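User: I need a structural model of Major facilitator superfamily (MFS) profile domain-containing protein from Dendroctonus ponderosae for a docking pre-check later this week. Nothing fancy, just the predicted structure tokens so I can convert them on my end. Input:
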Amino acid sequence: MALVRQTKKKWTDFLTCRQVLNIMVILGFMFNYMLRVNLTIAIVDMVESNTTNNTSTNSTKTRIDETRFNWNPEQYNAVLGSFFWGYVLTELPGGRMAEIVGARKIFGGGMLMASILTILTPAAAYLNYYVILILRAVLGFFLGATWPAIQPMAAKWIPPMERSKFIANMMASSLGAAITMPVCGYLISTVGWASVFYVTGVIGIVWSIMWFCLIYDSPAEHPRISEEEREDIEAKIADGEGGKNSKPSYVPWKRIFLSLPVWAIIITHGCSVFGYFTVVNQLPTYMKNVLHFNIKKNGLLSSLPYLAKYIMAIIASYFADRLRKSGKLSTTATRKVFTTFAIMIPGCLMAVQAIWGMDATLSVAVFTISLFFNGAVTAGYLANALDIAPNFSGTIFGLANTLSSFGGWLSTKIVAVLTAEESTFATWKYVFWILVFTYVFGALFYLLFGSGKLQKWNNPDEAYGQDGKELQPLKSKPEIEKEREINNIA
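Assistant: Understood. Predicted structure tokens for Major facilitator superfamily (MFS) profile domain-containing protein:
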């Protein structure tokens, strides 16, 4: 019997619960973006072609025989944009709800509902144009709550000096986009556009079931975690954050809105995402109309910006955590260095584009390298809410993402206005100079007002705070109670 017990191994002997969490979060953000961008690929085949030239006719004959829709350009863009109608509504509530009820329910529940709605998308399109508009808005409503939910989970599971690497998992969304594009293209060409929604929806549902089976809000709540792993995580969080803490009973909204470090995160995130949306969404239009080079026809080139950003996110986060652990840089210095690096370099590259952007090869290189460096935001401001206020990290990220969600809409409006008369390099130069200003402003604002120090209002119930310290513990009530039980048994 003793021999049998020694040879029998559990899955936790091969993978720790924290490693499982990392894997599920990476896959979660990949599939999160998959559910978001699948329509942008499928809609090209969903809409009936109105052209009558021979080339278009021949191309149409090769398409899978299925129902298509006579949507005009206004309806076409409304379907694409309806996602954001719901998306912006749940960024802030999603972050706050994750702090109250836990990220497991908010992130997993949002993904599950979005996956079900994805499967229903073809039926909604067949039923009525307005039905698919509403469905996509509701889908955005559920996915909007997922992004800010991951910060409160990091505060419970990840030691302070390792959080940059964990936050880098969010950039797996870029990897998801890079993979989804060619996969959906293959599905459309072989099975038809409806298959895109069925396949991606089923993948999302399978992931959601696994999430609820494998992931819990804290080590203390996990039924399968080993005592060694739980104690190691809790000890590192306590040691790194230095002191005991209680869960706040209310949100100090006034102090949050008057906090310059919070606004440094919000403003910088808005500037960075504005640049990202403009580059990713408008690059194909610029390349096609001005340089007469259709980047969408080259699968590798269309995926390069997404892949580049994810690679840099991993590299920068690794070095940021090592620098903080070694004591060579403080948390404040680390966040400022990597934020400046991630945003100022793209700003300089946009200046290069504004001056010498008439060359297609140079333009592809500039945009790809720009997004590559921008991936370093995971080691900068993106993880900063966990430094200054772990108790309200979801709320802060929700505020930041609410503002940045308007970036995609604003960039399309700016490009539309500036290129309304003619789409030439002379008119597009103004777009690039706006990006230069936006990037540089964001970098300088964070450099002046960003901070890695714990804010006193992180513990509003306490009579005094620990302003000036860079980290502070964050334990939930279940964690504290379980710790007491263990101590009593001992």
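Before docking, keep this in mind: The domain at 15-48+67-222 is CATH 1.20.1250.20 (Growth Hormone; Chain: A;).
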